[in-house]
Write a structure and sequence with these properties.
Length: 385
């Protein structure tokens, strides 16, 4: 009888393992509605924290250094910029320095180098000319800014930036989809690489897109690949384009579209936390922002790198959109987002944390159940001898 019970447990464990592996992609219709797109999901895991004292602005972005959350914001081109740091431990904010006579505009973006520095693109408005090419490095320990070599292309709403630990370089999209000023380039944007040791830029191959715009985002995933969202290049057509860049071959590969019914838009964001938690090296977290029809964005998704597959997670409690800029960051064992919207929106200044360990990791689940199966098999073998 004992042998039969143990054998049944082994078979049950294997079945659970198989179901666990399939669930992120097939379980319960994958959260989809009848039209093939994801339906709304119940909010369960987001927790509100201390809001910012300012709402979103035409220049804004969020980043983190593993310990703190950083927000750079400027309401309008004539406003005073805000650069603040949030401490999750004591739930408090403090102000940081900003460079003198610098305006942070549409498309401002920050990348952390895992070594105490942020690299910052300052963005531009649609009416600006070709002079919006400022690029800075901010040092956390000294609270100081240094201007670096100008970007090799005008900046704008299509900006995105990321640090790669694979080669210790900075990678960036530069540009915007719409021009109302004097600058009329032959191309709408470029993909380029910055070398901090030489203070030089090198232009690289571009993905198979006409350009990038609102919601464009980049993320490095610990090896030779960088992943990218195109963003809202067309204002009246949903774009869900997602691609992967190979650093070693300077080439792009189209990946599965992000499941955003109305397309990626203002607030589109990508986040990889594998540097801090090795159980999550195979996952990218994402917000797709508001849609091309300007509907507020609630969608929060994960992308399984090894499977090239997306899965929707808990909706964010307060929508993002209206203003361009990354909203996601990691700090102190949690994922964070800042709403960063106008005061007329629900909350507008909301800051929320997410316990990401609720997200299923198929590889980890498989290892645990496989270990359990081995233990049970050993017990059966012991009964037989």
């Amino acid at each position: 009888m004992k042998k039969r019970i143990l054998l049944a447990l082994v078979l049950l464990t294997v079945m659970i393992d198989i179901i666990g592996l399939l669930h992120p992609w097939y379980g319960e219709n994958n959260g989809q509605s009848d039209n093939g797109w994801f339906s709304d999901q119940k909010i369960t895991s987001w927790v509100g924290r201390t809001n910012t004292t300012f709402t979103g602005g035409y220049g804004e972005c969020v980043s983190g250094d593993g310990k703190y959350i950083y927000i750079l914001q400027e309401k309008t081109a004539t406003s005073t910029p805000n650069f603040v740091r949030y401490n999750p431990v004591n739930n408090s904010w403090n102000s940081l320095s900003v460079p003198p006579s610098v305006s942070f505009k549409n498309g401002v973006a920050m990348a952390y180098d895992y070594n105490g520095n942020f690299y910052v693109l300052t963005g531009s408005s649609y009416s600006d000319g070709a002079n919006r090419v400022e690029f800075y490095r901010y040092n956390i320990s000294t609270d100081t800014w240094i201007r670096l070599a100008d970007s090799p292309h005008v900046q704008g709403a299509g900006d995105a930036i990321v640090y790669s630990g694979y080669d210790n370089r900075i990678y960036a999209f530069l540009g915007r989809a719409h021009y109302t000023g004097s600058y009329k380039p032959d191309v709408q944007g470029i993909f380029t690489r910055y070398d901090p040791t030489t203070d030089r830029w090198t232009n690289l191959s571009y993905p198979p897109w006409p350009g990038t715009d609102d919601g464009s985002s980049l993320v490095w995933t610990g090896g030779k690949y960088i992943y990218a969202l195109q963003g809202e290049y067309y204002e009246n057509k949903p774009l869900r384009s997602f691609a992967r860049y190979d650093i070693t071959t300077d080439s792009w590969q189209v990946m599965s579209d992000i499941p955003a019914k109305d397309g990626v838009g203002d607030g589109g964001s990508l986040l990889w936390i594998g540097y801090y938690d090795q159980n999550y090296t195979n996952i990218i977290f994402a917000l797709d922002g508001n849609g091309c029809n300007e509907t507020p964005g609630y969608n929060f998704s994960v992308y399984y790198i090894n499977k090239d597959t997306w899965q929707r997670e808990d909706n964010i409690p307060s929508p993002i959109g209206y203003y361009v800029g990354n909203r996601l960051a990691y700090a102190s064992g949690k994922i964070w987002y800042w709403q960063g919207t106008p005061s007329t929106w629900k909350d507008g200044t909301g800051v929320y944390s997410y316990t990401y360990t609720a997200v299923q990791v198929p590889e980890l689940d498989s290892r645990i159940t496989a270990l359990f199966s081995v233990i049970l098999a050993a017990l059966i073998f012991r009964e037989q001898i």
